[in-house]
Specification:
The strands form 4 sheets. The protein has a 5-stranded parallel sheet, sandwiched between helices. It has a 4-stranded antiparallel sheet with strand order 6-7-8-9. It has 409 residues and is α/β, with parallel strands linked by helices. α11 packs parallel to α13. The protein is elongated and about 80 Å long. It binds 5'-O-(N-(L-cysteinyl)-sulfamoyl)adenosine and zinc ion. The site of zinc ion has 4 residues, from loops.
Length: 409
Amino acid sequence: MHAWPASEVPALPGKGRDLQIHDTATQGKITLDPGPVARIYVCGITPYDATHIGHAATYNAFDLVQRVWLDTKRQVHYVQNVTDVDDPLLERALRDGHDWTELAERETALFREDMTALRILPPQQYIGAVEAIPGIVPLVERLRDAGAAYELDGDVYFSVESDPHFGGVSHLDAEAMRLLSAERGGDPDRPGKKNPLDPMLWMAARPGEPSWDGASLGPGRPGWHIECVAIALDHLGMGFDIQGGGSDLAFPHHEMGASHAQALTGEFPMAKAYVHAGMVALNGEKMSKSKGNLVFVSALRRAGVDPAAIRLALLAHHYREDWEWTDAVLAEAEARLARWRAAVSRPDGLPADALVEEVRAALADDLDAPAALAAVDRWVDAQNAADGDDTTAPGVVSRTVDALLGVAL
Ligand code: 5CA
Ligand code: ZN
């Protein structure tokens, strides 16, 4: 699949700092030390209702990771998937009488437009589940042949007991895992499973549903977690720097994915850091496709909202926080954008070398975007109050805000 166009990232004077980031698995901040090419996998959308503000907030967080790394003069290898076949997508297409492939294509196209408008840098590989199937089948066969997977009425399940590290990403107790598994695509109550938590790797073809050649597995379609593992291992290999997504993916998705990869390779860990963004809510509840309490980026854009203001609204919240989208959040971001634009549109400006370092320091410290905005606010307020006799061109401020925060002034 093709991704979307990259906006240019201006080079800044000096060099950025190494990223310290909160890792869900070790439950604390770690300093990542990627090689010359930093490797990141971020879980992509299930394209049946895209792109709401919650999605945008999560992809904004990982865009900051990318920008911090680029500022350290590293290259970034970024891979993202599209879950373009899965139960929720098929159910939505059936409910609305749409062809599921057309639904997926339409929503993925809209997602690309939204990402472009928000200046979220694209992944180098943007891979659909369907196109990944030929790579998924041999992995499931390998797990089965190694005794890490078993068959149940034609479906193939992963045995969580095959990974000694299982549980080490999300640190939940058995009851919490069971509840979340039932809520998030698992089937803990299905009789005949070795462990109620075991997730499906390969689902045998069901009447009326799409299916693909599964070689010795028989016709069917892939489970959700193995999709991301196959794509990540194919393009990044084991031990990549960050596995990212929203906090609703920590369990079961990232827990199961890590176990699949570790059981397949015998190596540990799959990723050096498991990074999770908080959930955005609307009217007191998590914004979610299943609940339908959604604010779409495309609807805001159609209503004439500047995408730079949407981005500033996202940046005003620390990525790990759960927060609520309101009209006031957007109004504040629009006012901030106007103040910032007024400040950089003057021909002269206050010195800004310290500002570049402050923004760098804020983002390198677990992506503290609110602290970065506060630093820019301080410069902007002083600049808007200054008498105009200063000699530094404000271009470095625009370039800093563009390169590190993805906001074009
Ligand atoms: N296709 C899978 C991942 S492989 C999936 O979870 N798709 S999704 O469309 O449901 O979500 C896409 C990304 O947005 C995930 O990282 C998810 O954690 C994140 N996300 C979903 N809802 C919210 C929300 N309300 N707030 C913040 N992030 C969210
Ligand atoms: Zn995923």
